[in-house]
Amino acid sequence: MRRCVRLSGCVRELQCRFGIYRKTSNSWERQSVATPIAEELEYRMPDLLSLLATLVFTLYVFAFGACFGSFLNVIVWRIPRGLPIAFARSHCPHCNTMIPGSDNIPIVGWLRLRGRCRFCRQQISMRYLVVETGVALLFAGLFLLIVVSQGATLPQHGQASQFTNWLTDFPNGWTLQVFLHQCVLGYALLAILLMDQERSETPWSFSLFMAALHLGLVCWNPAINQLDQLTQRPTLGSPLALASLSASLNYSLSGGVLALVLGGLARVLKLPCRVRNSLQALLLLGVFLGPIVLAWAALIAGTAQGMQWLAGKLRARPSGPVLGLALHLFCAWLIILCSWRWWPRAEWPPWG
Ligand SMILES: [Zn+2]
C-alpha cells in the first residue's frame, strides 16, 4: 500500500514537472492555465491502474502468443511431412517418448529441461525456444503497437479528436479487430517463412485456411482490410462498415490478383527465390491488406532481395544461408505496420 502511495506520488511529481500541477505546502493544486503540451501529456500520462492493466494485458497476450508459437513449431514440423496436426501428443524426435504436459509448457518447459529430453538426454533444437519466444514477442508487440497506442501508426490516426486512455476504447473499439487481423496475417507469414527456411513447401491448404480466417474477420468488421482507403475510423456495425463489405471483398480480390501477377513476374524473371512459398506470402499480403500495401511490401522485399543477389555476385561465392523472399516480405510487412500512417496512399481502383 505504502509503495502504491509512493508510485502515485512519482506520477504527480512528473505532472508537476510538465506544468500540469503545482505543489503547495501540503497538497497538489491543478494549474489553471496549462500549456498545450501539458494538456496532451495529462491525457496521455497513464495513471497507476491503467499502467498495471496494460502490463497484465500485455503479459496475457505474451503467454497467449507463446502457446501459438508452440503450435507453430508443430505446424512447421508436421505439415510438410504429411503428419496429423490435431489429436496427436507431442513426442521426442529422438526416443519417440510422449512428452508429459508439465514439460510441454511453452518457453518454460525448454528452459527447465535446459534444452535436453528428460528421458534420453538428447539435445532439443534451440528453434523451439526461438519460435515460441518470437511469436510471443510478435503478439505482445502488435498489442502495444495497435491496441495500447490506439493505432498511432495506422492510417486513421489523424481522425482522433481527443486523447483518451486505451482502456476506454477496449474491447468494443476497432483496434482489437485490427490487432486480431494482423496477428492472423503475421502468424501465417511466419509459418510460411519458417517452412521456407526449412526448404520445405507450404501446402496450399494452410494458406487457404488463413484466407478463410481473414474472410471471417472481414464479415465481423469489413473496414479492417481497407484501413488505407477509409476517410474515417471504422466502428463495428456502423452503416459505413456494413456498406463496405462488398468493397472489402473487392479489395481482397484485387490484392490477390496483383499478387498472382507479381508471382508470375518473379517466375518469368527467374528471381532467385523459392517461388511457391513466396507466392503464398504475396497472396496472403494482398488478400489481407489490399493491392496498395502489397505493392509497397513487394517493392521493399524486392529491393532487399536484389541487394542480396548483387552482394552474392560481387563476392563471387555465396556465403551463409540464403535468405528467402518470404523472410523479406515478413520484414516488409513489419516495417509498413510500424509506419503505415506516413506511407503515400492511393485510391483503389485508380480508374474509378
Ligand atoms: Zn528423448
Q: What is the strand and helix layout of this fold?
A:
Blueprint (H helix, E strand, L loop, with lengths): L1 H16 L3 E3 L4 E3 L5 H9 L3 H31 L29 H5 L13 H23 L25 H24 L6 H17 L18 H5 L1 H24 L6 H41 L9 H15 L13
Antiparallel strand pairs: 1-2
Helix pairs in contact: 3-5, 3-6, 5-6, 6-7, 6-10, 6-11, 7-10, 9-10, 10-11
Gyration radius, to the nearest Å? 24 Å
Query: What topology, given as strand order, has the largest sheet?
Result: 1-2
Query: What is bound: which ligands?
Result: zinc ion
Secondary structure tally: strands: 2
Mean pLDDT: 81
- Please work out how many helical segments DSSP would assign: 11
Helix content: 55-70%
Strand composition percent? under 5%
Q: End-to-end span in angstroms?
A: 62 Å
Low-confidence stretches: none
Order of helices and strands: HEEHHHHHHHHHH
Report the sheet with the most strands, covering strand number, pairing sense and barrel closure: 2 strands, antiparallel
- What structural class do you assign from the helix and strand content? mainly alpha
Overall geometric form: globular
Quick recap of the structure?
By secondary structure, the protein is mainly α. The protein has eleven helices and two strands.
Tags for this entry?
352 residues; mainly alpha; two-stranded antiparallel sheet; 2% strand; binds zinc ion
